[in-house]
Amino acid sequence: MRDALLKIQEEALLKIQETEILEGLEGFRIQYLGKKGELTKLLKEMGKLSAEERPFIGKLANEVKEGIEEAISNRKKILKNFQYQRLIEEEKLDVTVNKPMAKQGHSHPLYQVMEELENLFISMGFSIVEGPEIETVENNFDKLNAPKNHPTRDLSDTFYIDKNLLLRTHTSPVQIRTMMQQKPPIRIISAGRTFRFDDVDDTHSPMFHQMEGLVVDENVTMANLMHTLDSFIKEFFGKEMKTRYRPHYFPFTEPSCEVDVSCFKCKGAGCPDCHDTGWSMELLGCGMVHPNVLENCGIDSKKYSGFAFGMGVDRIAMVKYGIPNIRFLFDNDARFLKQF
Ligand code: DAH
Q: Ligand 1 centroid to 173 CA: how many Å?
């Protein structure tokens, strides 16, 4: 019996010592110490022992039992610790690693300009509205007082989708959408993409950007228009900038003007950039909203008047940053874009 006990002890301790599987330890406990375990079975035979042998074997059996329990508990601690270390190793995150930062982009120079323009007009009490890039012929032309045979509807400079739809040729149809939905007082701006069948050159592209402005209220005059635009230009480009209003024709305004701004290079003195004129390229069209346009939108032109303006955002960005060619804005070459 003594030998059998020592054999169980030796075998059990060895197995426990060698196992690498934490969950397996419970199996060993059942195998040796459980109700039907090897040690338990052996102890059931204690009755067969003589009176002298019994205390001695009983004591040994207890030592074996405690030894196995202790071995299981020690091994459990060790394996748990291993498992923990392995987890730490696998999930290690070295926050001190010095990796180069991922390259971070920024908003496109054109959109920077657009946002700056919007913020400026917001500060003057305008609100922003949006319009679709695919427009109805009616909003893009008819309601803007450019009837059927008007030259601006020419097939050669307009992208028609079908008889009634086109890619908007300007942001002015947003005026119509606004006046159809909202009654005066109106004070809005709207910026976005516009499309014309233009050949590409330094200052033209078939896709370009405009920002439209519209103010309608009682007693709105040309003086209000000029004051608004002058304030905007001085705020945006600098106090020393001068403006010049040249008479022009647009079907949706009467009277209409084009606005020149002092050359940004020479500030009006004359230089090769402005062909010695002292004025920069054409940036803005504007005028007093034609009464027909107000009436087309159900606004009483006897009671209300308004002014409107439209500017080329690409050109404003070119002038502001000294970009010589509009194509740079759309090539999306990172070497160019990262300068802004
Ligand atoms: N829509 C004109 C264009 O594309 C620009 C323009 C001129 C807009 C006068 C206006 C305006 O609102 O009043 O050339």
A: 10
227, 243 Cβ separation under 8 angstroms: no
What CA–CA distance (Å, rounded) separates 286 from 228? 11
DSSP character for 262?
A: B
Residue minimizing CA distance to atom 5 of ligand 1: 310
Kindly give the number of the ligand 1 atom that is closest to the alpha carbon of 172.
1
- Residue with CA at minimum distance from ligand 1 atom 3: 170
Q: Pick from 286, 311, 315 the residue to mutate for probing ligand 1's pocket: most ligand atoms within 8 Å of its CB.
A: 286
Question: Which pair of structure tokens corresponds to residue 314?
Answer: 């690409």
Neighbour count for residue 71 (Cβ, 10 Å): 19
pLDDT tens for the chain, 340 residues: list them: 788 888 888 888 888 888 888 888 888 888 888 888 888 887 788 788 888 888 888 888 888 888 888 988 998 899 899 889 888 888 888 888 888 888 888 999 999 999 999 999 999 999 999 999 999 999 999 999 999 888 888 877 899 999 999 999 999 999 999 999 999 999 999 999 999 998 999 889 999 999 999 999 999 999 999 999 999 999 998 998 899 999 999 999 999 999 999 888 888 888 988 889 999 878 899 999 999 999 999 999 999 999 999 999 999 999 888 898 999 999 989 899 989 8
- Give the binding-site residues of ligand 1, using a 6 Å CB cut-off: 170, 172, 212, 250, 253, 256, 285-287, 308-310
Please say whether the dihedral angle defined by the alpha carbons of residues 243, 245, 249 and 250, taken in this order, is positive or negative: positive
In this structure, the residue with its CA closest to atom 2 of ligand 1 is 310
